[in-house]
TrEMBL record:
This is Histidinol-phosphatase. The keyword Cell wall biogenesis/degradation does not apply. Pathway: Amino-acid biosynthesis; L-histidine biosynthesis; L-histidine from 5-phospho-alpha-D-ribose 1-diphosphate: step 8/9. GO terms for biological process: L-histidine biosynthetic process. It comes from Sulfurospirillum diekertiae. Signal peptide: none annotated. Transmembrane segments: none annotated. Keywords: Amino-acid biosynthesis, Histidine biosynthesis, Hydrolase. NCBIfam families: hisJ_fam, PRK07328.1. Belongs to the PHP hydrolase family. HisK subfamily. It catalyses: L-histidinol phosphate + H2O = L-histidinol + phosphate. Its EC number is 3.1.3.15. GO terms for molecular function: histidinol-phosphatase activity. GO terms for cellular component: cytoplasm.
Length: 259
C-alpha cells in the first residue's frame, strides 16, 4: 500500500490547490491512503495556519471528499499541531480526527524553518540550536498528545548541520518517542529544501530502526505537484533499514500495513 499522511490545504496561507485537486492528484499517484493534516490554529504566527473559525469548514470539506471518493481512495482527517509551550489549544486537541502530527517549527519565537529568519543561524552556536530543538522534540513526545512526529530533524532544513554526532544529540528524543508509542514519518519535503534529503537523516533512521519505532510516510504537500513526491524513494530508503510495514490511522488507532 502507498500511504501519504502529511498534506496541506490553502487554509494554511502557504499552499496552493483545492482539496479536490489534491485528491485527484493522489489518485493519479496511485496512493491508497491520503491524509489531510493542515496546520492547526493557535494564537501564534496566525499567518501560517487556519483560524479557529475555519476548523469546521476544513473538516467538512475533507469529510466530503472522503465520502465522494470512498470507492477509490481512503481519505483521512488530521491536523499538524505546532508543539509550542503555552499555545497548544484544547479546541484543537478535542477534535474528532484520525491522527495528530506533532511538529516543532519554533524555538521560542524563532521560526527557524522560515527563510525570512535564516540569518539567525549565523548568530548562534549550531550545536546548541540542535540540542534545543531535540529537547523540544523530547518534550513533545512526553506530552502524549500526538500520534506522529512530523519531520523529525526539520532543524537541518537550511543545511546548518551540527558538529556533534546527531545520534547523540537526538538519543533522548528517540527514547521519548519510543516511550510515547509514536510513529515517525519519512517526509519528502527535505528533498525540496536546501538540505536536499529526506527527514529524517540516515543516521537517525538507523537509530529509529534500532529502537523499533514505527514509521509512516508523508509528501508534506503544499501544492498539487508535491503529492506523492519521491514516495518510491522514501519507501526504498525505509526498506534499507529493515522496515516492511508503515502506520496508518483511523480515529487515533494505529494500523500497521505492508508497503
Amino acid at each position: 500500500m502507498m500511504i501519504d499522511l502529511h498534506n496541506h490545504t490553502p487554509l494554511c496561507h502557504h499552499a496552493e490547490g483545492s482539496i479536490e485537486e489534491f485528491v485527484q492528484a493522489a489518485l493519479l499517484q496511485k496512493i491508497d491512503v491520503f491524509g489531510f493534516s493542515d496546520h492547526a490554529p493557535m494564537n501564534f504566527d496566525e499567518d501560517y495556519r487556519m483560524s479557529f473559525s475555519q476548523m469546521a469548514d476544513y473538516e467538512r470539506d475533507v469529510l466530503h471528499v472522503k465520502e465522494k471518493y470512498q470507492d477509490q481512495i481512503k481519505i483521512l482527517l488530521a491536523y499538524e499541531v505546532d508543539f509550542l509551550q503555552g499555545y497548544i489549544d484544547e479546541r484543537v486537541l478535542k477534535r474528532n480526527v484520525d491522527y495528530f502530527i506533532g511538529s516543532v517549527h519554533y524555538l521560542g519565537s524563532w521560526g527557524f524553518d522560515n527563510p525570512e529568519f535564516i540569518g539567525e543561524y549565523r548568530t548562534k552556536n549550531i550545536d546548541e540550536v540542535w540540542e534545543r530543538y531535540f529537547e523540544a522534540i523530547t518534550a513533545m513526545a512526553k506530552s502524549g498528545l500526538f500520534d506522529i512526529v512530523g519531520h523529525l530533524d526539520l532543524i537541518k532544513v537550511f543545511n546548518y548541520l551540527p558538529k556533534k554526532d546527531v545520534r547523540m544529540i537526538a538519543k533522548e528524543a528517540i527514547k521519548a518517542i519510543k516511550g510515547a508509542n509514536m510513529a515517525i514519518e519519512l517526509n519528502a519535503a527535505g528533498f525540496r529544501k536546501p538540505v536536499g534529503e529526506q527527514y529524517p537523516s540516515h543516521p537517525l533512521l538507523e537509530l529509529m530502526a534500532e529502537h523499533d519505532i514505527p514509521i509512516t510516510f508523508g509528501s508534506d504537500a503544499h501544492a498539487v505537484d508535491h503529492i506523492g513526491f519521491l514516495q518510491d524513494d522514501l519507501r526504498a530508503i525505509a526498506k534499507n533499514y529493515g522496515y516492511k510495514k508503515c502506520a496508518t490511522f483511523e480515529s487515533r488507532d494505529r494500523i500497521l500495513v505492508n508497503f
